[in-house]
Design goal:
This protein is an alpha+beta fold. It has one domain: Thiol Ester Dehydrase, Chain A (Roll), CATH 3.10.129. Helices cover 23% and strands 38% of the residues. A hairpin with a 2-residue loop joins strand 6 and strand 7. The radius of gyration is 18 Å and the shape is elongated. It starts with a helix and ends with a strand.
Length: 166
C-alpha cells in the first residue's frame, strides 16, 4: 500500500495530459470527501426508479422488521455516485470530451444505512489507446465511515479524448 492509500484526507490528482494517464496505472488517483446518504435521496431514487420497497422508504417498518433497524439505500443509488466520486478525485487537464463507458465488475458488500457517510477511493487499473483517445478502467471503493468493509467495489470504464487545439 502506498503512502497516498494510507491517507484519510480527501485529495485529487491533476493529470496534465491524457497521454500521461498510463503513468498512473496501478496508482490511487484520489479520495473523495464524505457524502451523507439521506432519507430524501433514498426516497427520490425509489420514486424515480419505481423501486419503493419498505426497506428503503419506510423508517417505521424498517425499525420493526429490518435486521438493520433503519432504512437502507438502494445498491444502485450507491453505485450511481461513481461518476461523482471520480469527478472529485482526478482531472485530466487537456481532455475535451469524456464518456462514461460503463461498468465491468461490481460487488455490493455492505448495506448503506440512512445517514451513513460514504466516500469514494479511486485508483487506475488500466489505460489503453483508442483512436484519438484513451479508454481506461478505474477501481472505485465505496467506503463507509466506521465500517471495515466497503459498501461496494466497482470497476468503472471511461473513454477520453484530448483537445487537439491545445
Amino acid at each position: 500500500m502506498t503512502e497516498a492509500q494510507l491517507t484519510d484526507k480527501a485529495y485529487s490528482t491533476e493529470i496534465p495530459h491524457l497521454s500521461d494517464l498510463k503513468n498512473y496505472v496501478g496508482k490511487e488517483l484520489g479520495l473523495s470527501a464524505w457524502f451523507t446518504i439521506s432519507q430524501n435521496q433514498i426516497n427520490t431514487f425509489a420514486k424515480t426508479t419505481e423501486d419503493d420497497q419498505w426497506i428503503h422508504t419506510d423508517p417505521e417498518m424498517a425499525a420493526t422488521h429490518s435486521p438493520f433497524k433503519k432504512t437502507i439505500a438502494h445498491g444502485f443509488l450507491v453505485l450511481s455516485l461513481a461518476s461523482k466520486f471520480c469527478f472529485e478525485t482526478y482531472s485530466i487537464t487537456d481532455v475535451s470530451m469524456g464518456l462514461n463507458y460503463g461498468l465491468d465488475k461490481v460487488r455490493f458488500i455492505n448495506p448503506v444505512l440512512v445517514d451513513s457517510l460514504l466516500r469514494g477511493r479511486v485508483s487506475l487499473i488500466s489505460a489503453d489507446d483508442v483512436t484519438g483517445g484513451v479508454r481506461y478502467k478505474m477501481k472505485v471503493i465505496f467506503e463507509l465511515k466506521g465500517q471495515e468493509k466497503p459498501a461496494c467495489v466497482a470497476e468503472f470504464i471511461a473513454q477520453a479524448y484530448a483537445n487537439s487545439t491545445k
